[in-house]
Amino acid sequence: MSEGFRLNRPNVIDAGGDWNNITIPGFYKGTDITNAPIAGVVCVIVNGDNAGNAEQQALAVGNPGELYRRTYIGGAWGIWDTISTAGGGGVVTSVFGRSGGVTAVAGDYTAAQITAAASATNYTPAASTVEGHLSGIDTALGTVNGGSA
Q1: pTM
Q2: What are residue 149's DSSP bridge partners?
Q3: Within 23-86, where are the H helices?
Q4: pLDDT in tens, 121-145
Q5: pLDDT at 148 over 50
Q6: Per-residue burial over 2-15, b = 16 or more CB atoms within 10 Å of its CB, e = otherwise
Q7: Environment class of residue 38 by beta-carbon count within 10 Å: exposed (0-12), middle (13-18) or buried (19+)?
Q8: What are the distances in angstroms from CA 68 to CA 12, 26, 45, 56?
Q9: In angstroms, rounded to a whole number, what is the distance separating the alpha carbons of residues 79 and 81?
Q10: Which residues, 6+ apart, have CB-to-CB distance to 52 below 8 Å?
């Protein structure tokens, strides 16, 4: 069996600890710690960079599937974002009048159902060559940035 990376025992955060003070990369575990995403036992993986920024990814031990994430940038923690909740959203069972094992098909969405302003992330290709696509992206970026790209 090949050796791979594995997390060893977590660093245990004592009662009265604060997740806001944990910015050193590693694997941590705490129970009812201040500034946790939820009450109870939470395991947290902390990633960081050389500039002092960090990210915490938390797993709620008593609620399988509950995952949270937040970042520490410029000396301030962001809010905990919910990545996943227990049970997830489940299987899609009904959409556009179809039921059962629902699979996307052509015509599920039309241009009239999806509207968005031109942006660097909203580019509809009209060209048939790579050069044409790049030119269209340059134009879209210039429109977003207020000038030519």
Answers
A1: 0.53
A2: none
A3: none
A4: 555 555 556 666 677 666 666 654 4
A5: no
A6: eeeeeeeeeeebee
A7: middle
A8: 19, 16, 11, 8
A9: 6
A10: 23, 75
